[in-house]
Amino acid sequence: MAEIVLRNLRKTFGKVVAIRDLSLDVADGEFLVLLGPSGCGKTTTLRAIAGLEVLDRGTIRIGGRDVTRLPPGKRGIAMVFQSYAVFPHMRVYDNIVFGLRMRGIPLAEQRRRALAAAELLQITDVLDRYPAQLSGGQRQRVAVARAIVMEPDVLLMDEPLSNLDALLRLHMRAELKRLHREVGSTTVYVTHDQVEAMSLGDRIAVMRDGEIVQCDTPQRIYDDPANVFVGSFIGSPPMNFLRGVLDGAGGIRLGDTVLPVPVAYQPALGAQRDPEVLVGIPPEHIVVGAGPLVAEVVVSEPLGPSKLLTLRTHGQLLKVTVRADHPAAPGDVVHMDFPPAHVRLMDPKTERALPRTGP
Description:
By secondary structure, the protein is α+β, with helices and mostly antiparallel strands. The chain folds into two domains: 229 residues, Rossmann fold (3-Layer(aba) Sandwich); 109 residues, CATH 2.40.50.140. The protein contains nine helices and 19 strands. A six-stranded mixed sheet has the order 6-7-8-3-9-10, sandwiched between helices. It has a five-stranded antiparallel sheet with strand order 13-12-11-14-19. α5 links the parallel β7 and β8. It is elongated and about 75 Å long. The model has no long low-confidence stretch (mean pLDDT 91).
């Protein structure tokens, strides 16, 4: 078993709080993604699990063992860095088995593990080359192979795809997902790319200012963001948020237009004293062509299979995804509607999701 239990982790650098009393459980064999903008504390959290950062306080347990004060080599972990960190003077095979040699693993076992990892990562044909002779994607595979040959309890990855171009990232995402399915190591993966997070993670822990603001499955985080920050960070483009006012008669007023309050929110809004509310709606769920809301097309961006429109309604901008052949052009006036099932309401003061009683 290689579950990870983090309790009340805190790490400061001078007056800067990098991790703020963070607690998190990662199940055995789970692929968990730490997601957030630069400076949110995700890499510091990963380095703390690895033993590369000394905590101010808190405990870390891996597989039921308290590893808080253990050095990295005794934690049963392996780490893949953003910069690949392969040795340029060593051939690929020697890079892969370097850690095994340091541990005194017999040569036959070194070879068995190296060949198995190379086959898994499809780099058997480059074992005799030097890193300078490899593409970026191949070098990243070497770094991953060097990690998995150690047969670690926990595999830690710090933005391993950020140095690759878009097509390679797409390919490597699929490879990493396949690799995790076949190897089964408990994996913690750090990224600021929400597309990577959504495609790779069993769960995503969204971080902000050293804290986890929401931890759930990718679909639940996308469908039900805990606050405006999560909704504005997840999705490409992310959820729209428009300021509205409760009209007291079961509707939400946007300018001179009244939209019905979704049934699931009616019990919570019945006790709401503040009439202001934030209306969240994903770009792909907005119906364009019919509905009570009137908007002007500001920008039209062709994206191949779809088109992204920037609309202005009642002085507020929002993004809408439509078919590629949709005729809307800048300057056009369009009608639109927000299907109640996809509307998410937030408190404008706390920016937190309002409670609802159903889907």
